[in-house]
Amino acid sequence: MESATPWRVLPEPTALNRYQPLIGVRATQRLLRKARRLSGIRVLHVNSTPQGGGVAEILSSLTPLMNELGILTDWFVITGSPEFFTFTKDVHNGLHGEPVPLVRESLALHANVAHANAAQAQLENYDVVIVHDPQPVRLVELRGRQRWVWCCHIDLSAPYEPAWQYLAQSVNRYDTVVFSLPEYAQPLAVPQRFIMPAIDPFSLINQDIARPESGSHLERYGVGTDLPLVVQAGRFDKWKDPEGVVAAFHLASAQVPATLVLAGNTASDDPEGPAMYDKLQRCAGERIIIIEADDPLLVNALQRRASVVLQKSLREGFGLTVSEAMWKARPVIGGNVGGIRHQIVDGRSGFLVNSVEETAAHIVTLLQDRIRRHSMGRRARQRVRQDFLMTRLVEDWLDLIYEIVHKGVARKPARVLAA
Questions:
Q1: Which residues contact 370 (CB under 8 A, 6 or more apart)?
Q2: CB of 360 within 8 A of CB of 252?
Q3: Residue 413 pLDDT greater than 50, yes or no
Q4: What is the number of alpha carbons within 13 Å of residue 44 lying toward its C-beta?
Q5: Spatial CB neighbours of 371, under 8 Å, sequence gap ≥ 6
Q6: I want to staple 236 with a disulfide (CB 3.0 to 4.6 A). Which of 10, 179, 277, 363 is the partner?
Q7: Residues 245 and 214 sit within 8 Å (Cβ to Cβ)
């Protein structure tokens, strides 16, 4: 799906009402009250893919919820050439700390694509423009009188300095910058805020499905359930360390028989995905299943039927798949990095790991101890309910939008404020 003009994701008529049993009447009323303060404000979200990534998953739920709250909210997806997305993936890798080339022609292409998309985005129709991640960051060079927010979903704790310095030239043109965590803060001339992402419990990937239905989804993809399932879902991306997952599974399955399923997709803004998928296919076997599919119901079924869910990331701004699995009362073994550290309480709602060997040991522990799996899973679900549901995310955005529209945000150097 390509975006020629912004589109508005229409809300379900009862979306907010469905949340009320989870968040309570007071929280629901507070959301409505905060939304009324923004009556008449028009908001545009901009990113680089309509599906296949965490940002798209967030926006597909955040946009209709903001509309239901009475805030006219659209979502625009930029388009670009394969060369453009190859360069922006290099920038993405650079922000994760990998040395990458930054040649003059690529920098010019980044600007040209952003400028070409600006007219289609109809920026003049909005009061607030929220730009997500590096791909569309240079749209701000054509800013008008709108308030501009750059939201970075990437782990910026140790970026490759030339890549960050290149990006910072554009980031400093924004009114406010949003990072997922305070440890991602950077020396900037604009205020910084910190908003952790969240999940939609009613989306296809998270909604309740009966056991027979989940079984039919697994059967359709040839996933047997005769042995316990160990699952990692998400993009086929080297930063998710799928090869490390395979190595850990080999060690663990030598002690406890199980089936590993790696389910992922190759998003349109990630040119490295197909190569990683092809490499993983060489690891496939009777007990290692590699599935390339953009099927949220499959992920839902896999996470619900899994005995253990993995997210063995090497760098991770915030792991949506971690919160998704936790919401389904599954213990998650996650890389001890970035946002995952703030999602999993080590030893209570899952495990944080630093190596293949640690990962394997915890897989064995959980497969052998059903009672511990269930108790961890219950605590995991409660943690998501308290901190990582979409209503908390939309409230954080309502507070920030109110601040920058009605109060203004002073541009002070290197100021870091916790939300």
A1: none
A2: yes
A3: no
A4: 27
A5: none
A6: 277
A7: no
The whole-angstrom separation of Cα 388 and Cα 392 is 7
- 35/45 Cα distance (integer angstroms): 17
Q: pLDDT digit string (tens) for 217-271?
A: 999 999 999 999 999 999 899 999 999 999 999 999 999 999 999 998 766 667 7
Q: For residue 206, give the nearest of 381, 64, 48, 45 by alpha carbon.
A: 381
Token pair of 55 as six digits: 């940002």
Give burial (CB, 10 Å; 0-12/13-18/19+) of 183.
middle
Q: What is the pLDDT of residue 414?
A: 33
Instruction: Locate 334 and state its tokens.
Output: 């996650």
Instruction: Specify whether the CB–CB gap between 223 and 302 falls below 8 A.
Output: yes
CATH number given to 15-198+390-407: 3.40.50.2000
Whether the Cβ atoms of residue 266 and residue 52 lie closer than 8 Å to each other: yes
Q: Is 350 left (phi over 0), alpha (psi -120 to 50) or beta?
A: left
Q: List the 147-152 sheet strands across, edge first.
A: 72-77, 42-47, 128-132, 147-152, 176-179, 192-194
Contact 94, 315 (CB under 8 A): no
CA distances from 295 to 51, 105, 302, 333 (A): 11, 37, 11, 23
> What distance lies between CA 2 and its chain's CA centroid?
20
Tokens of 367: 């497969």
Q: Are 328 and 381 in contact (CB under 8 A)?
A: yes
Q: How far apart are CA 347 and CA 272, in angstroms?
A: 34
- CATH class as words, domain 211-387: alpha beta
> Which run of H or E residues covers position 290?
strand 288-292
Q: Residue 410's pLDDT is what?
A: 46
Could you tell me which residues come within 8 angstroms of residue 340 by beta carbon, excluding any fewer than 6 positions away? 311, 313, 316, 318, 319, 322, 334, 352
Structure tokens at 404: 């920058």
User: Hey, where are the domains in the chain?
Assistant: 15-198+390-407, 211-387
d(CA 378, CA 348): 10
Q: Is the pLDDT of residue 419 over 60?
A: no
15-198+390-407 and 211-387 share one fold? yes
Q: What is the Cα–Cα distance from 271 to 93, expressed in whole angstroms?
A: 12
Task: Provide the β-strand partners of residue 308.
Answer: 230
For the segment 92-150, what is each residue's pLDDT rounded down to a tens digit? 999 999 999 999 999 999 999 999 999 899 999 999 999 999 999 999 999 999 999 99
